[in-house]
Amino acid sequence: MKRYFLLALLCVAASCSKAASTDMPEWRWPDPEEPETPEAVEAHPAIVAQGWTNVTASYTAVPEGIDIYKSPAEMGGQKVIAYIAVADMNKVTWDVKSINDPTIQGTDEALKTPSTFYAETAAPVVVNGGYFFAEGGKRYNASVAVSGGKVYGVNINYASTDWVTMYYPTRGVFYQNSSLSASPLETEPRVGWTYWSGGAKHYLYSEPAQNSWDAAPLQIPDAHFPVDAQDFAPQTAIGGGPVLIRGEEIVNTWEAELLYGDGADDKMPNARHPRTAIGYTTDNLLILFVCEGRGMTEGVAGMTFEEEAKALKDLGCKAALNLDGGGSSCLLVGGLETIKVSDGSQRPVASVVILKAK
Questions:
Q1: HSE of 206 in the Cβ direction (CA atoms, 13 Å)?
Q2: Sheet of 249-250, strands arranged across
Q3: Hey, which of 91, 243, 249, 334 would disulfide with 172, CB 3.0 to 4.6 Å?
Q4: Looking at residues 17-27, what average pLDDT do you find?
Q5: Short-list 326, 351, 329, CA closest to 18
């Protein structure tokens, strides 16, 4: 029986479908309402022009600089329920909270639901973060997690279908360098691909290694492969994959990042699931995105990677990264869930991204 580390991590991620129960718990949050004042709608007119509705007034404790939007009922001909938290980076900052597993050795720390992270941080916006897995009584980060310059997790640096032939993928990351840098251009959030050498070297690339399950493994990434690397030492970062948008263009590097199974029905990019993503726009906005799926609301299947990428591109993102999805997808605003999570209750996760006022 084949075992996929590509996402054995992801027996808790978007690739592991769980059919929605026919006996679902009653939805306990009120549906957001239309805003009462036109000023709220006009906060981000380009987003409103895409059919999104400003529902910030439906939530409490949302600070200035953060707006919450609900998607149009259909996107690309598909029924959709999605939410975005839009943060003005002049007024709001982002951070990552995570279990402490900086070398993929595992930790005894417990996974936590987004609500638990919210209780600990009181952050007005909390969304699930990167991939992870649990095995042998320990919990493992399988994605980059960096907060305040401290590394709490790295992207998984190997994958196999048979544990004989090994691959060494570069995986996506969304990151921001230290605010001490002289140039704002150097400190704005961006995306890339990383490889952790297993030692002191943590590489950042402007292109992924072009791996594919349909081809022989490529060489182990190093300082000059797949392209010349930078030392990866950001102030804040969250990993996942695939990279959806880079340089204002959709790239969707799921194949190179080895983010799919081997059966046609199991290929993550072509199946609709709940999704979570993080992006950065041309006008200095950070966007946290979630979409519902797996029939939690009748007719709402979720999105493919390509559909998710297009939604973020239409919102103005010049950089965007897919995070963990499926039953992990959950966005809290003021402690309240937005989408109906597909496990029926919140899944404990290894990391979250939070927004907070500066």
A1: 6
A2: 53-54, 66-70, 82-88, 285-291, 275-281, 317-322, 243-246, 249-250
A3: 243
A4: 43
A5: 326
The number of domains in the chain is 1
What is the C-alpha to C-alpha distance for residues 79 and 82, in angstroms, rounded to an integer?
A: 10
The yes-or-no verdict on residue 35 having pLDDT over 80 is: no
For 206-233, the pLDDT digits (tens) are 999 999 999 999 999 999 999 999 999 9
76: nearest Cα among 328, 352, 313: 313
Helix (H) / strand (E) element for 180: namely none
User: Tens digit of pLDDT for each residue in 44-64?
Assistant: 999 999 999 999 999 998 999
Q: Distance between CA atoms of 69 and 44, rounded to whole angstroms?
A: 10
Question: Residue 346 and residue 293: Cα distance in Å, rounded?
Answer: 14
CA of 261: how far to CAs of 13, 220, 266, in Å?
A: 12, 21, 6
**Using CA atoms, how far apart are residues 252 and 248, in angstroms rounded to an integer?**
12
pLDDT digits 0-9 by tens, 110-150: 999 999 999 999 999 999 999 999 999 999 999 999 999 99
Q: Which amino acid is at 306?
A: E
What is the residue whose two structure tokens read 């309402």? 33
Q: In what order do the strands lie in the sheet with 125-128?
A: 92-98, 351-357, 125-128, 331-333, 336-337
SS percent in the chain: helix, strand, coil, step 5: 15, 30, 55
CA separation for the pair 234, 146 (Å, rounded): 7
CA atoms of 187 and 277, how far apart (whole Å): 20
Burial 77-90 (b: 16+ CB within 10 A, else e): eeebbbbbbbbbbe
What residues does 245 pair with on adjacent strands? 250, 320
* Cα–Cα distance, 276 to 328 (Å, whole number): 8
Cα separation, 199 vs 247, whole angstroms: 30
Cα 324 from Cα 180, distance rounded (Å) = 30
Give me the residues paired with residue 167 across strands: 159
Single out the residue of 296, 347, 303 nearest to residue 20, CA to CA: 296
- CA dihedral angle for residue 245, residue 248, residue 250, residue 252, rounded to 10 degrees: -20
Domain carrying residue 261: 5-357
